[in-house]
Amino acid sequence: MAKPLYVAQPLLPALSDFHTLLGEIWHSKALTNEGPFHQRLEAEIGKYLDVPTSLLFNNGTIALLAALKLYDLQPGSEVITTPLTFAATAHSISWNGLVPVFVDVLPENLTLDPKSVEKAITNKTSAIMAVHVYGSVCELEALQEIATRNNLRLLYDAAHAFGVTVKGRSIASFGDASIFSFHATKLFNTFEGGLVATPKETDKASLRCLRNFGIKNEEEVVSIGINGKMNELQAAIGLLNLPLIEEEKRLRSNLRKKYNEVLGHLPGITIQQPQDGVSSSEQYYPLIIDEGAFGRSRDEIYGALKEHSIFSRKYFHPICTDFSPYKNWKVTSTRPSPYVNTVKSRVLCLPFHSGVLDEHFEKISKVFVG
Q: Which of 43, 240, 270, 300 is 20 to 30 A from residue 114's alpha carbon, by CA?
């Protein structure tokens, strides 16, 4: 039986290099509490993202929780977001005692639709939580204008957009905060991990307190915080992986070109389009499959790939408003029917990483073109 190929494969350094850093951890006996590797990685990522505040967390969900908590939003107030996202985006809003309000996405890039955002704003709205989905960048100028005009906080779930730049400017510098995931499925991983980045130096002390139980010093606890600290094992992997991601991005970029050459001209298949001035995160390779035009459904393609032990992903399907906590919640849209309810049954992410070999690519191509 063929070895399974999955939609994602974790980037890992040489095991010998990790052993070297493990030796340093064993020697220092520093395992957590902002140890030396943690401090080094935090500084290096801050330079990489080119923002004054970038604080590591033990995972992306805790980072989302802390980022929302930073702004002390009115309990029970509404946060506008997209249903086409991982459940953690909506859950982080609810866990903060806030109410997620779901709005439609744009057909051209599947990010939050600014006109639908406008329509959803009420006197209870306190923030917008947009998502750079699949690495496609949100409508930054339009969302910022809406947020500024309505005195709303603007946060970005940037789990799919690590390292992206927009006309040379770091994606982490837009809005009030950007939240990254360093989960094993992401281009840059620390096994598990996350980060909150903001364009304000003044946010650093408050975020650090939120990350560490609200502790200011040995004798003072000044706020209600959480244990969100990254441990030294995670930080060590991060230090080793950070120099590897540009080569991984290059390999994925080449794979994207190969996919595009085979799939880009097929009727009923829509591929992810480059955005003007935006550097790709090379995080995912999503397709939208129109059964009527293509002749086969997304689920049929998913099943056909699975027969070859190739595991694509119906990502995101189901969407947040299909899950029990938000079942049948309204999706505000400027359209008669929200586009997100159509595209959720059409989107498919193909395996996209340096582990996709020529033999895999040939099998995937045959599933689509015969």
A: 270
